[in-house]
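Troubleshooting log. The previous run stalled partway through. Resubmitting the same two chains, unchanged.
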Amino acid sequence: MNISAAIWAMQAFNGLSTFCVLLLMALGLAIVFGQMGVINMAHGEFLTIGAYTTYLLSQVSERWLPALANWYFFVAIALAFVLAGALGLVVEHFMIRKLYKRPLDTLLATWGLSLIMQQAFRSTFGAREVSAKLPDWLMGSLKPTPTIDIPINGLVVMGLTTILTAGVLFALFYTRFGIDVRATMQNRAMASAVGINTARIDRLAFGLGCGLAGVAGAAFTTIGSTGPTSGSLYIVDTFLVVVFGGAQSLFGTIASAFTIAQTQATTEFFMTGSMAKVLTLSLVILILMARPQGLFALKVRR
Amino acid sequence: MSGVLQSVRPSSLRPSLRHLTTVVFEGQRRRENLYFVVLAVVLLGLFPLALDNFHLNLIGKYLTYAFVSLGLVLCWGYGGILSLGQGVFFGLGGYCMAMFLKLEASDPASTSIQSTPGIPDFMDWNQLTSLPAIWVPFKSLFCTLIAIPLVPGLLALALGAAMFRRRVGGVYFAIITQALASILSILIIGRQGYTGGVNGITDLRTLLGWDIRSDSAKTILYYVNALLLLGAVALSFSILRSKLGRLLLAVRDREERVLFTGYDVAAIKTFVFVLAAVYSAIGGAMFTLQVGFMSPSFVGIVPSIEMVISAAVGGRGSLFGAIYGTLIVNAAKTFFSEGFPELWLFVIGALFIAVVMIFPNGLAGMDYARAARTVLGWFSKLGKMRDGGSGRPVVAVVAPVVPSQPRIKVEGQ
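Second attempt completed without errors. Output:
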């Protein structure tokens, strides 16, 4: 196989990796922001919770339960979901619940929450980035040909993204809960009138979104280290992904994550990483200026 | 209902009503005029007399942020448009000024040790051999002074016109402006040779040969800054008192109605967004002059949102509140970052949450009488607990004077 084909394949894989990262981040936000219209600026910190959970669990398993060392990762994913989701429920109860009618104020309050959480992480885990000790089977890479090198952790993240996305799509479109969420989103008064407990749906949906962020954080430990501000680095990109896709459309979110990731990965090949990011974000903003409703707009009566 | 028309043209009202509105507006105007005089006395008299040079310069630095807060009051408090990218405009204004000062500081004589004398030092370090084209206009002070309001103003105009024409508002606008802040700070940090990178543009010395680092120069710059700020406040009031100001409020509260009445809502919103951008740019330019450098740390997402919180703490609906709020928040920031840096994020985070959940109108809009009653109420409860729960209330004022009304519980509220 010649070199250029190998470069092309690696480039495509890089794009797919970025796509999975963006999509994992955006999934939770697509529910919280896309479906419920809540701006949760602390979304990145829920992700960090998942990442730190994984880190702690890797430490615990290394020290006391070496038998678990190979499989702790799956426990970590579940625990990350539970912890981040539970905290999401608490935050919803004390803060978000009272601000549903003031979206801009929600933005400010959750930004404050994110600052507090960041400092709490820093005070607990220190300012330095930490990495979870990965089980052996996650290390290494596949080599289909001598020139192509596909890391296994990237493949695992991709698999996880696929499963989660399918799960969220299934939950939203084929379960009672999903029908209730969509009904509440599309017409709150009517949903309430037919007997849906909209306050409960709001709470559960917010918790689910935060839990998904936690799972994304757990997945991220396989490809990078975790610091107190890791989550906040992605928050703007993630919001852009959801807005660009058309806020209420989950398929739009998937498509927009794919588009943005591929643009980023392709331009990164030609210029420095930061310039590629500037170019990608500027393109997204320019497109949004021309088409503010995003790629896939869902018609909703307000 | 012709509510909008009536509020715009009081002369068309019935005589009795016209009298009433005149009285209301007159009272408010007189109060605002008084507050303006108080502000002028505080800025021009109290601070320079009471503070030494170092602290006066610090206040001067905070006052440059007050320009941003003023703009935010107009565009967020009155217009309902939350921009999370005011740092972009602050930074553009500041960078325009810094580019001029940097070019003056790097004349061929003092940069003779560089491999290319006559260009700023960071360009030389980044192997640039000639001045980039975007830097050339900033050789002249005249062009710089035009560029300071023009560059951010045009950016705001393009963004505002595109977004508001398509009726994008609220959270989408906030997110897009935030992305803009992110883009600009990445861009500045990434193009080190053109912008000085993450260090920014430093080592600024003179303005047309006048040393801006001396104590006397800093005092003069403080006064210039304070006068500009007072001018901005006066201009804001003249706008708010005009028909445009009332339309702005109407747009915030009932956008559709204003639209159906035949007004160009997008133009009104764009105007106020551009005005806020120009204010921020002036603040940025004054910041560069007073502090002596400009860096991307004043451009990105975090500084932009800190400027929003300053305005919110002071009171998003009050021009004066925004100025005092900016002073308080920034003084608190300096205090905490020097003494207890790890506490600062907790404090400002709690401030964000409190300003939204507890006092949404900020310090200026707080009901102090009610707050005092609440606090007294806590003390009285505390007193009761000390008495073993049987004692009478310590503070008698707390008891409601209004006969209690039957409470009607509304289902679902």
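Takeaways: Chain A has one domain: 3-129+149-290. Chain A touches chain B through 41 residues (CB under 8 Å).
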